[in-house]
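ok, trying the design again with the full structure, not the truncated one.
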């Protein structure tokens, strides 16, 4: 069971900010061996969806209203701690994120930039591929819409 919290940047506690940056770094930089600028100046505009198991942050996404990242509402930085993936927290955090976009932005169209190897995961959540694959930070990605 995951406890979901949706917060603006200003509502995040220092501990929550530290935890989400640590989780993103742990997966996107260390696990995926990808050197890139994670702290990109966009967190301040985002809604942050945090998934906790007990006191530990196990899943996270950030959301943007239309025009703040893409022309459509978007979900990014989708991450689940590696040893927690077996519990399907990816589905939980994505469903909570889709719902938060409806609730906070009154939007149903969502665009994501998905790592290609996760296409089927996102297909199962109602996203479909748009266009050709491209490299982002050295990792194959594809645009997807829901």
């Amino acid at each position: 069971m995951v406890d979901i919290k949706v917060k603006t940047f200003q509502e995040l506690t220092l501990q929550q900010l530290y935890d989400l940056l640590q989780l993103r770094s742990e997966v996107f930089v260390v696990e995926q061996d990808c050197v890139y600028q994670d702290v990109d100046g966009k967190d301040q505009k985002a809604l942050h969806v945090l998934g906790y198991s007990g006191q530990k942050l196990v899943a996270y996404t950030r959301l943007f209203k239309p025009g703040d990242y893409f022309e459509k509402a978007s979900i990014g930085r989708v991450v689940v701690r590696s040893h927690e993936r077996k519990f399907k927290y990816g589905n939980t955090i994505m469903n909570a994120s889709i719902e938060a976009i409806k609730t906070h932005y009154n939007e149903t169209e969502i665009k994501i930039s998905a790592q290609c190897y996760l296409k089927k995961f996102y297909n199962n959540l109602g996203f479909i591929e748009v266009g050709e694959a491209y490299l982002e930070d050295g990792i194959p990605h594809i645009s997807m819409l829901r």
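Keeping the full-length input from now on. Strands lie at 3-8, 47-53, 56-64, 73-80, 110-115, 128-136, 139-145.
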